[in-house]
Amino acid sequence: MGWFDGFPFKSKEQREKERIKFQTKVLPFGEPQKKAALLVLKQLAGTKLQDEELLFAFFSAKDKYISGLEDDEALEAAAAAIKKHPRLTPADKQNVVALVHLEYGIESLDNYPTPQQVLQAAEQLK
């Protein structure tokens, strides 16, 4: 395909549709879930990371976690997704994967994992 066949370009509507599909997959409870995840991650982060960095790591790990469920390699896929994130410490990475793992099983935001639960799960994942 060439440049004029539309290959490298997506319409604004197509990009928006893909964004909504991704958000629905990663954040089934919407914006409150995003805020809850960020709050937990900020409490656990060992370094001074920006909110965007924490959320990027979380979204990357969760996307791969969900994809890995089909092959029973969800935890490995989530860890691999953030393996090369330069500013996350190994403990931060472990906490992100633990949060993704715990969060995937919740049925409502009332059951959202606490920082203590994430630390316990991260210890078990080692």
The share of residues in extended strands comes to under 5%
Low confidence ranges: none
What's the SSE pattern? HHHHHH
Kindly name the structural category: mainly alpha
Annotation keywords:
single chain, mainly alpha, 126 residues, 0% strand, globular
Description:
- The protein is mainly alpha-helical and 126 residues long.
- Helices cover 64% and strands 0% of the residues.
- The chain has 6 helices and no strands.
- Helix 3 packs across helix 5.
- The longest helix is centred in the middle third of the chain and has 18 residues.
Which secondary structure elements does this structure contain, and how are they paired or packed?
Elements: H1 12-26, H2 31-44, H3 51-68, H4 74-81, H5 90-104, H6 115-125
Helix pairs in contact: 2-3, 2-5, 3-4, 3-5, 4-5, 5-6
